[in-house]
Design goal:
mainly beta, 5-stranded antiparallel sheet
């Protein structure tokens, strides 16, 4: 097939003719030659009526419709194959797809440019003086009823105002059904009745010729790039820019998606400078759709709130507006609004506007959002429902750096007690869901694993609850000191918590008017009990085991030194009170062998032995203690040396031979029985073998 069409340019005017000299198209304002889909040369053109068309060198419009059958064929949609056909002889038009188009009955076909954003193929047509709408879902079309006039709305194309017999009504953009039957005498009455904005439904923003031109600009000082409107209709700088809708016919970008530092969402703006085809960029720097019909506006670093009917709920005067994310009410427009007076909760649907707070936070709990909001008032935190009801008054502290920390899916509050942070939560106005807020002002769980209890506070006084939340000491103390607050904790070498036998128990001290009462809390089961050890102490001190170290060089405080009148004594962590008598004494002894400390306890002219943690190793029944071995101790009773076995596995001494300082050391000889198992291997001295085995070292094997 030979070419039969060519493009002629004369005096800046274009004309397309065939080989016979017939003019095919002559009202052309711009044209260029290119290559079509099938790699055949074609001519792309735009007419004075702003109609776009293509015709190949063989005379086929869009490679489908021959010029001998059609006067002119133009494409009227960007993303869809919908064409407008001009009748060969009459001034009538047809519309349709390649396979299906209407009869030549239309006097005017008006494409709606706002379709470029909505993706809805709606086209306005006129027959005589009557207007109707057409939709083209997949190779066929649907037509609305005829009206005297149909107004073209601004985006979104949800409803059209129509005029019929002097009355105004509304039709749906998808079904073409009448939402409001034409019965109102004016558009104002219709809009007042339906709550619509008159300008949005009657003013076609695309009738303007003013367009914006988005251009990338580089900030060389900060090594970053951003976008601006080169036409200067909008002075705001934007972030990344994506082309959303590009019309290759006219080489025009109809919609571009910008990003704002205030939002991670893409913000569309069309070539006429309207965000979402609705909001004029000359009025706003940016408009961000937040939820449903509600939009946050920004101008000169101030924020406001409007809807898609242009109704203003919050004027442009606030420093920040954020959407609250809640678990079961995700679709509700609830906002946290900040300004110089504070922050408040706002719901444009219900009209809710709370008083100003110091802070409001929606809380992510266990990877989802909960159904309450945390508020801050006078430096304290409470809990509020989405409708503004106070669920929990602001009476608790919470770290400001972590306002959304949680325990078991509940907001957790945090209080410092003896410089340690304790986390607790409140459910249904109850601490831990069980202890009523009306009973106590504070309830803190102390301890870990199976070893814990509760410290309570009421009117500035402290008391105790056991694991079953039973009150075992009412709030009577000015202060309570527990072993955990004194850093008494046992760790294994790998850093994990290590429970020993004594860790089943807890020493507690209650302070009243600068005197101290010492208590012993025992048991890991829910029936924890407390026993009073000593009251009325004028001084207490936690004593560290200077030789006992675990991971991270933690030095553990292993017992309590107390003073009560003339009594100077100790309480160990097995709940044993040592030295209640003013004549008693407890003396630490340093061992040369490994540097550990042991204690000689004198009571009633007798002595007993305790380890470095004041755990008793021997009863108070001896005159003196001479020497300690791995599994036995040599003591003095009535001037006789005796050997006492040490068989307490919980208090096993790990050294094989521990000697005291010179004050307690007895000179030993190792010559007489050298070569025997008892002396060479078990390290018994000559004196030991004489006293214990009556001079027969082989008798060692008969030790029970």
């Amino acid at each position: 097939m030979h070419p039969i069409i060519k493009l002629i340019k004369s005096n800046d005017k274009f004309t397309i003719i065939d080989v016979f000299g017939n003019v095919i198209v002559n009202n052309i304002i711009e044209a260029k030659e290119g290559t079509c889909f099938w790699r055949n040369p074609n001519i792309q053109l735009i007419t004075t009526n702003h109609e776009y068309s293509e015709i190949n060198i063989f005379g086929f419009f869009f490679n489908k419709f021959h010029y001998s059958e059609y006067k002119f064929v133009s494409k009227i949609a960007i993303d869809f194959e919908i064409y407008k056909f001009s009748h060969k002889t009459s001034k009538k038009y047809s519309i349709g797809t390649y396979r299906n188009h209407t009869d030549y009955i239309y006097d005017e076909i008006i494409p709606l440019d706002s379709n470029n954003f909505s993706g809805i193929d709606i086209i306005k047509v006129r027959i005589g003086k009557k207007y109707s709408l057409l939709r083209f879902p997949i190779n066929k079309y649907i037509e609305s009823k005829q009206y005297d006039y149909i107004f073209t709305p601004i985006q979104p194309l949800n409803e059209f105002i129509v005029l019929k017999s002097g009355k105004f009504g509304l039709i749906d953009a998808f079904t073409f059904e009448e939402i409001i039957t034409p019965r109102f005498n004016s558009i104002d009455l219709l809009c007042n009745f339906s709550g619509y904005n008159k300008a949005k439904h009657t003013f076609d923003i695309f009738q303007t010729d003013k367009t914006i031109k988005i251009e990338r600009t580089v900030d060389k000082k900060h090594y970053r790039s951003y976008f601006i409107d080169k036409s200067k209709q909008n002075k705001t700088q934007w972030g990344g820019c994506d082309i959303s809708i590009y019309d290759y016919r006219f080489d025009i970008t109809y919609v571009q998606s910008l990003s704002s530092p205030y939002s991670n969402d893409r913000i569309p703006i069309n070539l006429y400078g309207y965000f979402y085809n609705l909001f004029d960029c000359r009025k706003y720097d940016v408009v961000i759709n937040m939820i449903g019909k509600y939009y946050i506006t920004k101008k000169n670093s101030k924020f406001g709130l409007i809807d898609d009917e242009f109704k203003e709920y919050l004027s442009l005067e606030y420093s920040k507006i954020e959407l609250v994310s809640l678990r079961n009410i995700e679709k509700q427009p609830i906002f946290v609004v900040s300004h110089k007076k504070g922050v408040f909760l706002f719901n444009p649907e219900t009209g809710l506007r709370t008083k100003e707070f110091e802070g409001l936070y929606d809380c992510t709990l266990r990877y989802h959002f909960n159904d309450f909001i945390v508020f801050k008032e006078k430096g304290k935190f409470g809990k509020m429902s989405p409708n503004g009801n106070i669920l929990l008054p602001a009476i608790f502290s919470i770290p400001t750096e972590d306002p959304t920390s949680n325990v078991f899916g509940e907001i957790s509050f945090q209080e410092y007690f003896h410089k340690r942070k304790h986390i607790f939560y409140v459910t249904d106005n109850k601490f831990y869901g069980e202890v009523s807020l009306t009973d106590y002002d504070l309830c803190l769980k102390v301890g870990y694993s199976f070893r814990y209890f509760y410290i309570i506070k009421k009117d500035g006084k402290y008391g105790l609850l056991n694991k079953s939340l039973k009150e075992i000491i009412p709030p009577i103390f000015d202060d309570i000191i527990d072993s955990d607050s004194q850093e008494i904790s046992i760790f294994s070498s790998d850093g994990y918590h290590w429970e020993e036998e004594y860790a089943r128990h807890q020493i507690l001290i209650g302070c009243i008017n600068n005197t101290f009462n010492i208590y012993y809390l025992s048991g890991m089961n829910p029936g924890q009990t407390i026993r009073e050890l000593i009251t009325g102490c004028t001084k207490i001190e936690f004593v560290a085991d200077k030789s006992y170290y675990r991971s991270n060089n933690i030095r553990n405080k292993m017992f309590i030194h107390f003073v009560k009148g003339d009594i100077n004594g100790y309480v160990n962590y097995d709940g044993e009170v040592l030295s209640l008598n003013p004549t008693d004494s407890i003396s630490p002894v340093n061992c040369k062998f490994n540097g550990e400390i042991y204690y000689i306890i004198k009571q009633n002219n007798k002595v007993r032995l305790a380890d470095s943690r004041l755990r008793l190793l021997l009863p108070c029944a001896y005159d003196d203690i001479i020497q300690i071995f791995e599994d036995r101790v040599i003591v003095l009773v009535d001037n006789d040396r005796k050997t006492i076995p040490l068989r307490n596995s919980n208090d096993k001494i790990n050294s094989s031979n521990i000697e005291f300082d010179d004050e307690y050391e007895t000179e030993s000889t190792y010559d007489l029985y050298a070569g025997s198992y008892a002396q060479d291997i078990m390290d018994y001295s000559d004196e030991d073998i004489d006293d214990i085995f009556d001079g027969e070292p082989d008798a060692y094997w008969n030790i029970d």
